[in-house]
Amino acid sequence: MAESTSKVPVKTDKSERHPLTTLQREIDRLFEDFGRGSWRWPFGRALTELEPMWSNVTSWSTMPAVDVVEKDKAYEITAELPGIDEKNVELKVSGGILSITGEKSEEKEEKKKDYYLSERRYGSFQRSFRLPGGVDADKIEARFNKGVLTVTLPKTAAAQKPEKKIAIKAT
Q: What is the mean pLDDT of residues 11-28?
């Protein structure tokens, strides 16, 4: 039986980013770094500058697990979003930043003879990735299947060129 896959639209903002917006993001990043304490990613920032998931213990469960893989012709970001519906996920590209945002709400109500139980859980997340050089932002595609979001970031033709080995001459 064929698996059902649905496409998630990718919104592209081609307008220039206002300088104050950039300043605000930098200030926000400083405060986020301060909240993390002295613990740092051991190898610096990853290829697409992933935001670490350990900003604080309570948000650990609300941040989706994300894998980033570089392939010959594209980069691929896979995010696990269990229990989140495709219509509650948004993907945007603006100023060289890919943002994935989502929201989940859950309500449970149970009525029995001797008790009444009502629980509500709400949560949202946002993950941002700096697009690496050589990505064709106009051709980014996203698919959502069984709680897994897969974003394909195709490389430009120049970025797909194979390595060139340079001979070393003895003098």
A: 68
